[in-house]
Design goal:
Elements: E1 6-16, H1 21-31, E2 36-46, E3 56-59, H2 71-89, E4 93-97, H3 102-110, E5 116-119, H4 123-130, H5 132-144, E6 147-150, H6 153-162, E7 171-173, E8 197-201, H7 210-217, E9 225-229, H8 235-244, E10 251-254, H9 259-265, E11 271-274, H10 284-291, E12 296-299, H11 304-308, E13 312-315, H12 320-332, H13 334-348, H14 353-368
Parallel strand pairs: 1-2, 1-4, 2-3, 4-5, 5-6, 6-7, 8-9, 8-11, 9-10, 11-12, 12-13
């Protein structure tokens, strides 16, 4: 494809730093994208090390407000601010992160013929499933788009249903990825049948369902240990539940770790436990675990098996006894665990962020032609 330099405006209506999986993904994505001049719209405070992926980072000044009585006036004010920036920058394309949140809505109302590619992340789809007003916003943004990107066919199908098939021809799947060159697998393969050292990382909320892992540990035949890394509203409840079950000495809680620190400690564990029970847009943490040679015990949600290939062990979502059985099987069979670790490394190689960046750039070239 002919090399062409493009000017793109994108942004996330949050603090400008690695505050979520989506912001980490976007940072990696534009760092890996060649021949793209990217202006990022975000919020203060700005992580100055994080912003180097973008040619320009502009902090939005319109005070942020959520859905409610003041939302319409907030969007009007944000639209005026974004419109002035679009007029000044004159980008070739707009990449609207999230299908239906306020910044995407502002983009859709100020594009004035500039093609918009909307990138769905998961929380936007969950919000539209819960709320008719969020669904209306999703429809408006989708109608203004030239293309809608989802990381899996399963998420694309949910968007298609929510928008009643009106934009099927605009949907395209671009799998997400990670910076594989930064990952390091453990040096030694498993050599003995023994209790497992397990790790779970993510936000501690209802959808991530970390409680499934905690309760599963109380039902295993082997005394596995679980390390929970992350923060969220259910942290105290999870600690209390581990105490009630008599396994507090086998469940260890650590606060959120920046990615470099998380990746440095992943090879110290035997396996990763993935417990989401509802919608999971992609689950980058699955690939992060696999890239470090960890087998994954995963809740069998739509699309997750396609991401993991044959390198994971499924269990029934939200079912502690099903997870407990999967963990015991993995702990007893060292040869299977070794095979799963090798398959994990092989599968992770499919998800290099450079591939995601190239596909998004090619899509951008097509919609701007």
């Amino acid at each position: 494809m002919t090399t062409k330099s493009l000017t793109v405006v994108t942004g996330i209506n949050r603090i400008s730093g690695p505050s979520s999986g989506s912001s980490i993904l976007v940072n990696d994505l534009y760092r890996a994208m060649p021949d793209i001049h990217t202006t990022f719209l975000g919020r203060a405070p700005v992580d100055h090390a994080w912003k180097t992926a973008f040619d320009q980072l502009i902090t939005l000044s319109t005070p942020k407000r959520h859905q409610g009585p003041a939302f319409d006036s907030y969007v009007d004010e944000l639209t005026r601010e974004v419109g002035a920036l679009i007029e000044k920058i004159q980008p070739n394309a707009i990449h609207a992160q999230y299908l239906g949140f306020a910044l995407s809505l502002a983009f859709s109302r100020t594009a004035r013929g500039i093609p918009i590619i909307v990138i769905a992340h998961g929380p936007d789809v969950m919000a539209a499933e819960r709320s008719p007003s969020e669904r209306e916003v999703m429809h408006e943004v989708a109608a203004a788009s030239a293309a809608i990107v989802a990381p899996t066919p399963a998420l694309a199908d949910r968007i298609d249903r929510l928008t009643r098939g009106r934009f099927t021809d605009r949907l395209t799947v671009i799998p997400w990825g990670i910076r594989l060159s930064d990952a390091r697998a453990r040096d030694q393969p498993p050599t003995a049948s023994r209790p497992l050292s397990l790790v779970h990382a993510g936000r501690l909320d209802d959808n991530k369902s970390t409680i499934t892992a905690v309760e599963a540990l109380a039902s295993t035949h082997q005394p596995h240990h679980l390390t929970v890394i992350g923060k969220g509203p259910l942290r105290q409840h999870l600690e209390q539940r581990a105490l009630e079950l008599g396994i507090r000495d086998r469940v260890h809680f650590h606060p959120f770790l920046p990615r470099a620190q998380l990746w440095a400690c992943l090879p110290n564990f035997d396996a990763f436990v993935f417990t989401t029970r509802g919608l999971e847009a992609f689950g980058l943490v699955l690939i992060e675990a696999q890239a470090h040679g960890l087998p994954v015990a995963y809740s069998d949600l739509p699309g997750v098996k396609e991401i993991l290939g044959s390198a994971g062990v499924p269990y029934i979502p939200g079912d502690p006894s099903s997870l407990a059985a999967a963990l015991d099987d993995m702990g007893r069979d060292v040869h299977r665990r070794e095979a799963l670790a090798k398959a994990a490394l092989s599968n992770a190689r499919r998800y290099d962020i450079a591939t995601s960046a190239r596909q998004l750039r090619e899509l951008t070239l097509r919609v701007t032609s």
